[in-house]
């Protein structure tokens, strides 16, 4: 498996089983939209532009993430989706917030 990362590999976000669940769900969404990344191990610092993910693919990944986690990622959170780790952090925040602040179930 190949690894792709960059120096901004932050360790913020949920811990333990919840973190593994979130990271797995985000990785699954990426791989579903871009099957050529099936053998890639994503690290928190893995940037979407380094993976050559287009803006259309990123929006499709967002839809897949919303469906998988039953959340709604509002426009203000899209700016945070420049890396795998940031996407995981956004999902973690939305899951923790429940239906508050635009994090309710996807319609």
Spell out the key features of this protein.
single chain; 107 residues; mainly alpha; Non-ribosomal Peptide Synthetase Peptidyl Carrier Protein, Chain A; two-stranded parallel sheet; disordered C terminus
Structure, explained:
The structure is a single chain. With 107 residues, the chain is mainly alpha-helical. The protein has one domain: Non-ribosomal Peptide Synthetase Peptidyl Carrier Protein, Chain A, CATH 1.10.1200. It has helices at 16-33, 55-69, 75-78, 84-97; strands at 2-4, 40-42. The chain has a two-stranded parallel sheet with strand order 1-2. Strand 1, helix 1 and strand 2 (40-42) form a beta-alpha-beta unit. Helix 1 (16-33) crosses helix 2 and helix 1 packs across helix 4. The protein is globular, with a radius of gyration of 13 Å. The protein starts with a strand and ends in a 10-residue tail after the last helix. This is Acyl carrier protein.
């Amino acid at each position: 498996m190949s690894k792709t990362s960059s120096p901004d590999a932050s360790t913020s976000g949920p811990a333990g089983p919840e973190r593994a669940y979130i990271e797995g769900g985000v990785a699954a969404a990426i791989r579903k939209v871009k099957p050529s990344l099936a053998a890639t191990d994503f690290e928190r610092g893995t940037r979407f532009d380094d993976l050559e993910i287009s803006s259309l693919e990123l929006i499709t990944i967002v839809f897949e993430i919303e469906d998988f986690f039953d959340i709604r990622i509002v426009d203000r959170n899209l700016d945070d989706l420049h890396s795998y780790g940031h996407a995981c952090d956004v999902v973690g925040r939305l899951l923790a917030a429940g239906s508050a602040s635009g994090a309710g179930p996807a319609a």
